Here is the input.
Amino acid sequence: MTPKPLAMDECNLNTGFAGDEYCILPPPPDKGFQLHIGPEDYNNVDARFLLNPGDETTNDFQGASTNVDRKHFYYRQFRSRPGAHHNIISLTTGGGFGMGRRIGTSNNLSEDSPKGGIIAPENTGVGIPLEANSAINVSLHSINTTDKPQLREIWVNFWYRDEAQVTEEVEQMFQTGSTTFAIQPGQETTLGPFRCNIQGDGRMLWFYGHRHASNLRFSATRIRGEQRELFYQGLYWEEPIVLEYSSTVANVVPGPMTEGGHTGIFDMRQGDTIEWECLVKNTTDQVIRFANETFTGEMCIMDAELVGANCAGGAAGL
Here is the structure.
């Protein structure tokens, strides 16, 4: 299996704004579709897509899939202009946190899921269902720390699976932990541990820990009886790692100053517990609470995709 090169700079844009190189072309219509959130006219930019120096905002944009009948997808390409902190892509119906069932999440300017477009042998039957012409909501969080205006723009390609191959449907897991904490100025503390209980037998495909600028470490552990395994550790909020767990990906062993986690297929069993926590330090002169603001708000959210299992709960541990 040969990894696909990271697609970049496919649109020949010359807008004068930073990030033209992140634009990628959509899949052929019979192979997938592209979700594009951004200006239609770069010479007359809608104010919703313009972020002035020092500004930060989070709001929703609407889109739709172009499939005329029910499809499954798995491979996705996420591209965002500089300034994007996260984009959360959900169906507008279907239950779950926020709008509806999540179908994609990205916290970096460029990432492919799975990495290199390689679907591991054990995942040849996986797929995420998508009804025809599905209405889509995108929550886009942007921050401009530069001295120039920035465009808010993302391109996300969804690639269809061969319907005859799909035997296992993927479910995205999202847990907020606590939304009621208050971190005092100068205080260093741990949010959590938060826990959820695995229901069903399956495996985790990837995991990501979402946090903001006060975070020093995000860690997640699988508890199975008396056994504990640190399967995710992220140290750098500015460029957060997304760890994949499959037979084709080797992750770094986590250490005191090293990001990393489990390598290989990561199985989930009925009765397992997922525990996660965030070490944070408030270096500001104000109380930090659960909020979207990058430097004055904080979060300790876990996000993952699983097959055959999910995780219920999410309450703080004692």
